[in-house]
Each structure stands twice: as C-alpha cells, then as structure tokens.
Amino acid sequence: MTDLPQLPPLATELPPEALRVHALARRITTPCGDGDLVWHVWGEDKGEPLVLLHGGSGSWTHWIRNVEALAATGRRVVVPDLPGFGDSARPPGGQDADSVAPAIAAALPALVGDAPVDVVGFSFGGLCGGLMAAAHPERVKRLVIVGAPGLGLRDRRLPLMSWRDAPTEEGKLAAHRNNLGVLMLHPENVDDLALAVQAANVPRDRMHRRRLALTDILARTLPALTCRVDAIYGEEDALYRDVLPALREKIATTPYLGELVLMPGAAHWLQYEQPEAFHRELQRLL
C-alpha cells in the first residue's frame, strides 16, 4: 500500500490464534484510491454472502471470534479491512464514514455479485453500513448495526491514553490495555489476544480526521432506510449505558425496524466479549 510504506502487512504482527483464523480465509483485493482494498472471505463460495464491517482503528480482527462460527452455518463470510484501516488503502476524497461507505459499495459487487446482501456493521462499521444502505439500497438486503455511533447521543470522546507518547513498548501496551478497558471491553476481559490485536490495528488507522461518530448522522439516516434494520447493543457499552432510553428512541425511527437487542452485561466490543451469545442473537435475527 502506498500510504503504509513504514508498516509491514498486518498478519506479520498478529499472534498465533489470529494467524490461525487468518489462514482459513481467502484474500481478495479490489482497487481503492491509490492502492488496494483488502477482503478476507471465509466459507464456501456457494454460501449466501454475509458482509461484516469492523469498527474504527480496527481491521477484520474485530470479528476474530465470530467468522468461523458464521461460516459453519453455511454463510460466505466477507470481511474487508475498511479503507484507511488494516491493510487497505485510504478511500479517495475523504477521511470519514462518508468516504468509506461509497468505496465499499463500489467494490462489493466484485465479491458478492449484484444482488443485495446482509450487512452487519460494528461501531464505525455500523455507521458505514447505514450510510451505504441509504445511498445504495440495491446493495443491502438487511442491515444489523452493532454498537453503532452517529446517533447524536455523545458529543465528546471517552478519555483515552496516548500510546504514541509512550517511550517504550511496555508503555504502549499499557496504553492499549487501558484504552481497551475504557472503551471496548470490561477491564477484566482485556486478554492477551485482544491486546495483541489492538496493538497491531491502531498504528494502521490512517483516518485521523473522523468526526461523524460524534454527530447525529446515523440518526438522520435511519428514517430513510428501505431495508430491514436490526440493532444489537451491549447494556454495559461505555458509550451508551447511561442513555439507553434515548438509544431506544433513536433506533425506533427506522421504518423497517426488526429488533433492538440489548445484551446483558456486554460492553462495546460485545461480539468479542460474548461471542456465543452474540452468535445466537445474530443468527436469530438473520
């Protein structure tokens, strides 16, 4: 990738468990900006496509505890490194979800054909999925948003430690561990795999001007969607646990709303923290 000259491929910095899951996937690239958009596909090509979009400062690894179980149901699980994250080049023309969504929509037919598909978007990926479903309804059959922002319920970020300012690798890891415990997981659930994935993903985030998550852009988009929309949020999500009634009101504006599922005890990265419970809920919705 021309915009990642200083970093090796993501897989070279992942731990053995992540490499095991990665090795089960097929790698496909499509054009994106001045480089490639990298896709990872689990399951047989004849399976019905299920597209998973990861969160901010992430990569396909945000779904590391889910892709095998979903592929085992017979689905073809299609997971990009979103433009500007992981091993994918930055999207042309922007630094936020409103440039990522059209880049994904343009590339998707090369992976799944022209028929609309089920899309599941986590956090920033849920925001991207909502924007894509609004602008390209022919691409999305059903949308499941998981802990998605852009609902106008927060106007400031959670306080995180700067890993870039840490003078040692131990200090950087300590910052990553802290930040996972503040935003993504219950602190006691920040394990070695989550820490290693975070440490590999965050330096590859080249979308530093993202601001749409702190606006109400998704709340304004939901009423325009013409596909079925379901939502899964953690009851203990640090972004929303204090505003759950308002969250229900925002999601309820969706014309073709299926369900809003609040997973008990789950934090923001709920598909990692409670993979079995998440899998059951997602399969039930789909």
From TrEMBL:
A molecular function (GO) term: hydrolase activity
UniProt KW Hydrolase keyword: yes
Residues passing through the membrane, by range: none
Gene3D superfamilies in UniProt: alpha/beta hydrolase (3.40.50.1820)
Key words, A-Z: Hydrolase
SUPFAM superfamilies: alpha/beta-Hydrolases
GO cellular component: membrane
Span of domain AB hydrolase-1: 49-157
Pfam families: Abhydrolase_1 (PF00561)
Protein name from the UniProt record: Alpha/beta hydrolase
